[in-house]
Structures are given as structure tokens and as C-alpha cells.
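Fold this sequence, please.
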Amino acid sequence: MGPRGRRRVDFAGVARQHVAMTDCSNPRVAPAALALALVLAGCSTAPPRVRAPSFGTTVEVPSRISHEQAEDVTIAALGLVGTPYRYGGNTPASGFDCSGLIDYVYETRAGVALPRTVERLQYWGQSVSRDQLRSGDLVLFGRRDAATHAGIYVGDGSFVHAPSTGGTVRLDQLDSKYWSRQSVAFRRP
């Protein structure tokens, strides 16, 4: 049964049965039966079959940027380590806050403008699991319902971020004592 208790009819299957039962040696009947089968096949209500991935395979999460652009983002982020933190900062000359760093790197290296606040970054792009992370993905920390801090994943369990007033852009490990206790999510632009 289909939605609302209606019976689902596989019109393509009915047409195939009709073609099989039709005397195809009759030159007038065969083309009509074939045409009917083709028309009705387009009306089928059966959903398309989607093949599930095999165990152990990974499905690539779509991205707005290529692997090469993701590598450029990673290199640029690492090159900014040591730049002073400044709330609202979004250039190397003025310093960076965490979302300003992300926006600057993505805009200059990948030509992609990201949302300027961490709150909006948490909904941007595609969610990825930790085992699907690639360099250039976003790392977001915070409470269950709201992100409060963000960085750029650079590989090997590391991320670059602009942590706090008085500090500088730095490289940290996701598994460090402090960051491993934080709620974390990952996004792929």
C-alpha cells in the first residue's frame, strides 16, 4: 500500500507483462505494445533503487571547494599561526578572532565567503563525522545547541584557531586535555 492507504501500481511491470503476452510477430501489435510499455514506464510510482555502500566504504561528503583549495586553506591557516588575536579582527594586519580567521582564509584562498559569526558557521556547509575529516574542514566547539568557538582542521588531529584576547593564532590538538573535554562538531564548506 502507498501513502494514505492507496494501492501502489507498478505500471511499468504491467506494461512488461502486456508486451510479453502480446503476439510480437504481428507487425501492427508489437510497436503499439512497445510504445505503451515506454509511456507507462515513465509513470511508474516505484522509487528508484539506490544501492547502499558496502561495509567499510566511505561516502564522500560534498564540498564547495576542491581538495586542492582545501590544501591551500590549510597552508594559509598554518601560515597565520602567531598572528595576534583581536576581537572582531579579520586581517593579518589587524589580527583575528576565530571566525575572522576562518573567513579571511577561505575568502583569500578558495574564493568562498563564509558567514562571519560562529553562530552562523554551525549551520553552514555539510556536517561530517570525525572519521571523515579532511584538511580545511571547520571545527566547532560549544554547547549542545550553540557553537561558541571555531577553527580550521589541518590534519593529524590538529586545528588552527584564534583562541582568546591576549593570545595569538595557534595550532592545537583535538585530543589535548582541554579541547577533548569540549563538545565538538565538524562542517565541510
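Residues 1-26, 32-58 have pLDDT under 50 and may be disordered. The beta strands are 90-91, 95-96, 126-128, 138-142, 147-155, 158-161, 170-173, 183-188.
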